[in-house]
Structures are given as structure tokens and as C-alpha cells.
Amino acid sequence: MKGEGFFFVNPFAVAVNPASAGESAGAVVTIEQASASKSSIHGANVKKINKKISLKSMTLHNEKQKVNDELGNPIIIGIVIIWKVVNTAKAVFNVDNYTEYLSIQCDSSLRNIVRLYPYDAFTEEGEKSLRGSSQEVADKLKEEIQMRVDIAGLEILEDRITHLAYATEIAAAMLQRQQASAIIAARQMIVEGAVGMVEMALAKLSEKDIVQLDEERKAAMVSNLLVVLCGNKDPQPIVNSGSIY
Fold first, then answer.
1. What is this structure's pTM?
2. Which residue, 155, 162, 103, is CA-closest to 134?
């Protein structure tokens, strides 16, 4: 079956054979050149390119990029794109190299999307961030890339963030900020629990009429309980052998 003018095309692939930028039609050639070249037709030496385009789903994994987020903090981010060719005519004739075109558009779209979100949400609850809303960021990135590569006949099937971290120059400072936020949140929870326990203790003492305390003694008791419950270290017990009055 295979002969001159025939070639094989594998499954899930398309072969195109456009005329390349060789010697233009009508170029004058010698008899020796015409006899030596099987592609000479009517004195035109036209070179052909057999180019096969795969229709399978493929993966693009560009290098990690340093990008500034919404707050201007430099971060390192990497993505992976799953894509395929859906229009071979556009892929061949509209762009020079569709894989390189896709790679460049992915980098450009990534920068445009990342600058719309902060790395992490420190203030408002429900605020979108790169770390907390990775799926939403990936969806917006997919739409952005798809809009840019339609001209090349490509379809973006899926995209995922594979790496996300602060740049090395601010990583230590941001780690301290995250630790401070965690400590504040923990302290707030401890204080809320301690106040509830003190309130419950006073209510139980008053309800069961175990001891009668005036306002000054109640204030002292509240102060001591809060110190014990909110302190960083275990309290040292002190036994009062005399009267509290």
C-alpha cells in the first residue's frame, strides 16, 4: 500500500502536507536540477513538509514563575495544563507553532489571574485567596487561557495549581505573620472559654448557696481564675490557712 505519494497516519492523529517556503513556483532550474529532484513539477521546485498533528490529550507543565499577588507579595506558582487540538487547520495555519503559542499564553494568563487574588486571606472571612480558593482560581485561569488559544484551534480540558509558595525573600516574614495569626486566634478561643468557665463557677456558687461573696471578693476570684485559665504556664497552688476576710 505504501508507495510514492502515500503515507501512514496513526489513530488519533491528523496529517497535513502544506507547501513549505521553498523555491517559489516558476523558478528557473537547470536540467540537472530537474532530473535530480523528484519534486520538480513544470520547472517549479516545491518542497513538501509531512507534518502530523496528534489529537490526543496532552500535558503542558511550564516552569514555576515568580509573580506578585494582589498585595504585591512575590510568590512562586506553577501550573499544569491538559489540552488537545480540536481544529487542525487553525493549529497549522493560524499560528507558527501551536505548542509554543500555548506555553506563552499560559504564562501570560497566569500572571493576569494571580494579581487579582492575595496569597492568603488575613482579614475578611470569605475573602477569596490563592491558597483558600484554588479551584475558583483554576477555573478563571482555564477561561482566560481558552479565550486566548481559540485562534490556534486548541481546547483546554483541565488546569491545576501544582506549586504555590511565598518567594524566598519574604517567606520567613510571612511565616511569622501566619504564626502570629494562629497565636491570636488561639488566645481568643482561650479567653472566651475562660470567661465562660468563670461565669459558670459564679453561677453555680450562687445557685447552690455554697459561699456568699461580695463584689470585691467576686472580682478577686474572677481575676485569679482568669490568670490560672489563660496563663502560659501551670499555676502554683497556694493554700490559705486563715480567713479570706
1. 0.60
2. 162
